[in-house]
Amino acid sequence: MQREVEDRLRRRFPGESIDADPVAQAYAGYFRRFGSRYPVVHQAKTILAGRPIESPSALVEAMFTAEVDSLVLTSGHDLDVLAGSLTVDVARDGDRYTKINGKEQALKPGDMVVRDAEGVIASVLYGPDFRTRLREESSAALFGAWCPVGLTAAAAEVHLDFLAALLRQEWPDAAIEPVRILHAS
What we know:
This protein is globular. The chain contains 5 helices and 8 strands; from the N terminus they run ααααββββββββα. The protein has helices at residues 2-12, 22-33, 39-48, 58-70, 153-170; strands at residues 74-78, 87-90, 96-98, 104-106, 112-116, 119-123, 127-128, 141-145. By secondary structure, the protein is an alpha+beta fold.
């Protein structure tokens, strides 16, 4: 399926016209507010340039495949490590967390975040946290799609449904919960 997505991406965005895509523009607008760039466009451009979709983790590879196919920013977490219930929120002054690379990060106030009982597990600007990151040995996962202004919940649902289809290809007997939409509090 990865090769099909790579080919579809190349047909869809000849000459790297990806920046004009409405999904890419919605995220670019969000990231621009914080002086940043939307990373999925860069990742998709590397695929357009010939880099294959691959990861040592099958869960991460499925997530990345769906992400570059739809351009919908996705966060993946080890479900067995999450603590308590999740809250979609907005970062406040003084919020910090440990990024997936193990480095401490001060969050920018106003950025969308998700918290569990132990703290922030993901931010739009900086991605998933280290504690709940997907690992090669992860056997249960939670995936979330971020929806900034300009991206509909329906687009996120289509994206997550495609991700579920990719997961079913790899693990036909996996239990996959229906998509749920959570809104910032």
